[in-house]
Amino acid sequence: MQIIKNIEELRSIIREWRKEGFSVGLVPTMGYLHEGHKSLIVKAVSENDRVVVSDFVNPTQFGVNEDLSSYPRDIDRDAALCQKAGASLIFHPEPEEMYFKDNCTFVDMDSLTKGLCGRTRPTHFRGVCTVVSKLFHIVTPDRAYFGEKDAQQLAVIRRMVRDLNFAITIVGCPIVREPDGLAMSSRNTYLNKEERKAALILHKSLVIGEEMMKAGERDAAAVKEAITANIESEPLARIDYVEIVDAETLENTARIERSVLTAAAVYIGSTRLIDNFTFQPQG
Ligand code: AMP
Fold first, then answer.
1. CATH code of 220's domain
2. Whose CA is closest to atom 13 on ligand 1?
3. How many domains does the chain have?
């Protein structure tokens, strides 16, 4: 698997691809790849002639007390997974390649980034929008693939592409889970045995909420309360948020009448995990 660390080198490869008339897909990741990432790559490979996987732990999307330095990294394992999934190359730049020392330009967004994860991670989406914009300019893909696991991120990217007129199709991909239901995440490696067991409470509680909606419950507060109470029954869990919002605007909603996103962030010990589901009422 070809690993490119240099922006100009990547650009010249992509220019050659374009001369051949190839379409290009991009899968942005922070590496330490798992089956969730792989599902995005496989989808991208099925829809594009060439696929770039970016593998970059982006410093600007981490808050000061977050896990930037301890975030897991293993480029050799990532390369093997990308090879298997059929990717064309990995873009794996150093932070100095992506950001000038005196970088002072950022892409920021109002409203959609203020709630959910944005409440406790106020600079996170500025970092995400900035790095994704940079990757879009560097790779100039036809399509870019993002997981529904990070539902707010997907909504933010869709909005950014619309607002800033990027000529790129954003493709959302379903959440891939462990056999017991835990959403796959590079951060799951932080969990010890006891925490790994406790982490299941997040998915289990969201399933309870989803079942309520399927059974006809339309009062968001009632569903939120049931999910919250269930998560709180796990002593190792500490809730960051449980929210039910409009799936497109991410604004709070009292009634479940349109497509809604139910999202939660929960600390298990010191590891912060997120999960969600989208529900569309029928009729
Ligand atoms: P990350 O490396 O965590 O920044 O994730 C890179 C991309 O993979 C993002 O678009 C994520 O939403 C997506 N992703 C991460 N975990 C999963 C999962 N369990 N299922 C589907 N997509 C995922």
1. 3.30.1300.10
2. 147
3. 2
Angstrom distance (rounded) from CA 12 to CA 277 = 40
Q: Are residues 31 and 118 in the same domain?
A: yes
The CB of 186 under 6 Å from ligand 1? The reply is: yes
Active site residue 34: no
* SS3 call for 27: strand
What is the span of the domain harbouring residue 83? Answer: 2-173
Same domain, residue pair 118 and 151 = yes
pLDDT in tens, the chain (283 residues): 999 999 999 999 999 999 999 999 999 999 999 999 999 999 999 999 999 999 999 999 999 999 999 999 999 999 999 999 999 999 999 999 999 999 999 999 999 999 999 999 999 999 999 999 999 999 999 999 999 999 999 999 999 999 999 999 999 999 999 999 999 999 999 999 999 999 999 999 999 999 999 999 999 999 999 999 999 999 999 999 999 999 999 999 999 999 999 999 999 999 999 999 999 998 6
Tell me, yes or no, whether 38 lies in a domain.
yes
CB-count exposure of residue 22 (10 Å: 0-12, 13-18, 19+): middle
Q: Please pick, among 34, 37, 92, 124, the residue that the annotation labels catalytic.
A: 37
pTM score of the predicted model? 0.98
Q: Is 44 in the pocket of ligand 1 (CB under 6 A)?
A: no
Give a yes or no: residue 217 inside a domain.
Answer: yes
Residues 156 and 209 in one domain: no
145 and 251 assigned to the same domain: no
Residues 6+ away with beta carbon under 8 Å from 162: none
Residue 250 phi, psi dihedral angles, 5° rounding: 60, 20
Strands 2-4 and 24-29: unpaired
